[in-house]
């Protein structure tokens, strides 16, 4: 086996943040001279040297990466069977890191299939030990391989990598989109990040962005190369995915709930040095990495102690006598106390931190830390400002100009979120009876006034019931989503009001569908089930309100009387 390993070379493929367009990590991919890495591992398995060969490949990946001074987190691949092997099997990996001057915190261990052949208890135990030593953990092939969902919940990996089979199916199959949404929902609870691998087409990229997946790799973005360019960014044209057909296909994907971006959506890898580093060491890093905006000086536990801003530092050390004065002395003398923000913070909280900073530091990177104040990366203020601005523009464009209420997309996200969460909830469809007759008789301006009044009533009612979300989907049609304890008082409050146009009273019709956990699968199904209920409400006299349930023909009439027969 050692002779075969001599012929193995490595290529490096970057992972991109789809919000910032920048590279956040690099994966090392083994490239044997003959065949592929799977053939090599199969031969090692047959010879009884699988674990040792697998670890040796990981060690070689670390050494090859060191030759290129990547300065980014490195993803190395290890089989689940290897991780679950004898205690100490990964000891050579620790040695390789010491040899090149890197730490476990610089490495993401990508655990690959087959998982089912690895003893479950030992696998989980060894993964926890790796994490305790500082490694980050990724589970590869999720959705296409064999990792059990219970393993995702038990391990709570730092990274979940979507199998390329899932990515291929996203633009054409709603089931794959639902799978990704479910994984996103799980990750919100475990703190994991989803990475899409094998992105090959603009349609796939458009679907991923619509679903809220923010990390991706694939040949569409950048192929694997022997000498990777870590400063490459996704072009603006590619980021916008300007293929109309691709966007059209991707727009059929359900939307994730997006109350606002988190700081981790804009995370860049931190360039770190020990807090004892000299100015000369910092200068060397900045000279070789022109894209780096600053250096974080950390203690032995990876906790930020100081931050060195690129511009202020270079101004100090490159001026007259600057190098002589500072080069051999601690860089902390030219550093600032770090501006820290927690990984769970929202982007608006970050902007609040910036707003209260000294004027000369408003553009400094902020250091993102975990619950134990360990450095996870940095965020750049410009990225966050741009992201928040884009979100506000997107939200404003989605508001109805008459009522300033969100449209159907917002309601669809809320319904899908509640479906995935297994909640008991209700969806209501409200409109004005004979609204066309109103416009035809008193004019469309008076009709607009009526719609505004109804929009205000819904907005005021929602303000009193925080669990209610309302939307204006066009014309005189409104939607509401609420928990079962709020739908009755909210709806009654709206229907109890008197509505009139030019002195003439108008009536409303409301159809409500009560959805138990598992009774509906999507917003589209809810829409279909509401249609006959709405017809029932419209058949009643006066302001009407009917209530139904999926799978049942029974309809409760809460308001409205039968129309009188005409003889």
Task: Provide structural commentary.
- The protein has three domains: 2-253, TIM Barrel; 267-385, CBS-domain (Roll); 399-562, Alpha-Beta Plaits, CATH 3.30.70.
- 41% of the residues lie in helices and 22% in strands.
- It is globular, with a radius of gyration of 29 Å.
- Pfam families: EAL (PF00563), GGDEF (PF00990).
- Residues 423-560 form the GGDEF domain.
Q: In what order do the strands lie side by side in the largest sheet?
A: 1-2-3-4-5-6-7-8
Radius of gyration: 29 Å
Number of domains: 3
> Do you know the CATH topology of the largest domain?
TIM Barrel
Counted beta strands: 23
- What low-confidence regions span 5 or more consecutive residues with pLDDT below 50? 236-258
Helix content bin: 40-55%
Termini gap: 96 Å
Please tell me the CATH architecture of the largest domain by its name.
Answer: Alpha-Beta Barrel
Mean pLDDT: 83
Instruction: Look at the structure and give the CATH class of the largest domain.
Output: Alpha Beta
Q: Helix tally?
A: 22
Overall morphology: globular
Beta-strand residue percentage:
15-25%
The description of the largest β-sheet is:
8 strands, mixed, barrel
* Helix-strand makeup class: alpha/beta
CATH-wise, what's the superfamily of the largest domain?
Answer: EAL domain
Lay out the secondary structure.
Blueprint: H1 2-5, E1 9-17, E2 23-31, H2 37-47, H3 50-68, E3 74-79, H4 80-83, H5 91-100, E4 107-112, H6 120-132, E5 136-142, H7 149-155, E6 159-162, H8 164-169, H9 174-190, E7 193-196, H10 202-211, E8 215-216, H11 236-240, H12 244-250, E9 267-268, E10 272-274, H13 279-288, E11 294-298, E12 304-309, H14 310-317, H15 322-326, E13 340-342, H16 347-355, E14 366-369, E15 375-379, H17 381-398, H18 408-420, E16 425-432, H19 435-442, H20 444-464, E17 469-474, E18 477-483, H21 484-496, E19 499-501, E20 504-506, E21 508-515, H22 523-538, E22 540-548, E23 556-562
Parallel strand pairs: 2-3, 3-4, 4-5, 5-6, 6-7, 7-8, 10-11, 13-14, 21-22
Antiparallel strand pairs: 1-2, 1-8, 9-15, 11-12, 14-15, 16-18, 16-21, 17-18, 19-20, 22-23
Helix pairs in contact: 2-3, 3-5, 10-12, 16-17, 19-20, 20-21
């Amino acid at each position: 086996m050692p002779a075969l390993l001599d012929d193995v070379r490595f290529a490096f493929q970057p992972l991109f943040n789809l919000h910032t367009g920048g590279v956040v990590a690099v994966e090392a991919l083994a490239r044997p001279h003959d065949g592929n890495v799977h053939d090599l591992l199969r031969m090692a398995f047959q010879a009884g040297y699988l674990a040792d060969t697998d670890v040796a490949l990981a060690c070689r990946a670390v050494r090859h990466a060191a030759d290129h001074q990547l300065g980014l987190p490195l993803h190395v691949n290890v089989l689940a069977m290897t991780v679950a092997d004898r205690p100490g099997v990964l000891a050579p990996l620790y040695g390789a890191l010491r040899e090149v001057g890197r730490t476990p915190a610089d490495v993401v261990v990508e655990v690959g299939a087959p998982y089912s052949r690895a003893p479950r208890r030992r696998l989980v135990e060894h993964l926890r030990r790796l994490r305790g030593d500082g490694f980050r953990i990724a589970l590869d092939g999720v959705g296409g391989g064999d990792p059990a969902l219970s393993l995702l919940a038990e391990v709570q990996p730092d990274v979940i990598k979507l199998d390329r089979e899932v990515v291929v199916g996203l633009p054409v199959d709603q089931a794959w989109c639902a799978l990704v949404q479910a994984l996103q929902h799980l990750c919100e609870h475990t703190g994991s990040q989803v990475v899409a691998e094998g992105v090959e087409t603009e349609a796939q990229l458009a679907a991923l962005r619509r679903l809220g997946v923010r990390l991706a790799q694939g040949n569409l973005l950048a192929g694997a190369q022997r000498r990777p360019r870590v400063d490459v960014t996704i072009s603006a044209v590619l980021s916008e995915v300007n293929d109309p057909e691709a966007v059209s296909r991707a727009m059929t994907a359900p939307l994730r709930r997006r109350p606002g971006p988190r700081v981790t959506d804009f995370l860049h890898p931190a360039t770190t040095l020990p807090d004892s580093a000299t100015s000369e060491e910092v200068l060397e890093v900045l000279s070789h990495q022109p894209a780096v905006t600053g250096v974080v000086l950390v203690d032995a536990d990876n906790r930020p102690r100081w931050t060195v801003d690129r511009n202020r530092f270079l101004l100090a050390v490159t001026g007259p006598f600057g190098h002589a004065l500072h080069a051999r002395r601690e860089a902390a003398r030219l550093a600032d106390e770090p501006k820290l923000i927690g990984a769970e913070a929202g982007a608006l909280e970050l902007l609040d931190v910036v707003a209260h900073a000294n004027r000369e530091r408003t553009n400094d990177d902020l250091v993102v830390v975990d619950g134990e104040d360990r450095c996870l990366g940095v965020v750049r203020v410009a990225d966050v400002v741009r992201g928040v601005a884009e979100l506000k523009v997107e939200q404003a464009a989605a508001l109805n100009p008459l009522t300033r209420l969100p449209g159907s997309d917002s309601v669809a996200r809320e319904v899908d979120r509640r479906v995935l969460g297994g909640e008991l909830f209700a969806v209501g469809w409200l409109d004005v009876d004979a609204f066309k007759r109103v416009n035809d008789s008193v004019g469309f301006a008076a009709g607009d006034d009526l719609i505004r009044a109804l929009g205000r009533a819904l907005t005021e009612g929602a303000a009193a019931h925080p669990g209610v979300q309302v939307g204006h989907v066009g014309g005189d049609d409104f939607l509401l989503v609420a928990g079962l304890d709020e739908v009755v008082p909210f709806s009654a409050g709206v229907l109890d009001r008197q509505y009139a146009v030019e002195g003439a009273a108008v009536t409303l019709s409301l159809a409500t569908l009560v959805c138990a956990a598992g009774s509906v699968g999507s917003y589209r199904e809810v829409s279909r089930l509401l249609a006959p209920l709405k017809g029932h409400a419209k058949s009643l006299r006066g302001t009407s309100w009917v209530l139904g349930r999926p799978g049942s023909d029974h309809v409760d009439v809460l308001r409205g009387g039968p129309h009188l027969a005409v003889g």
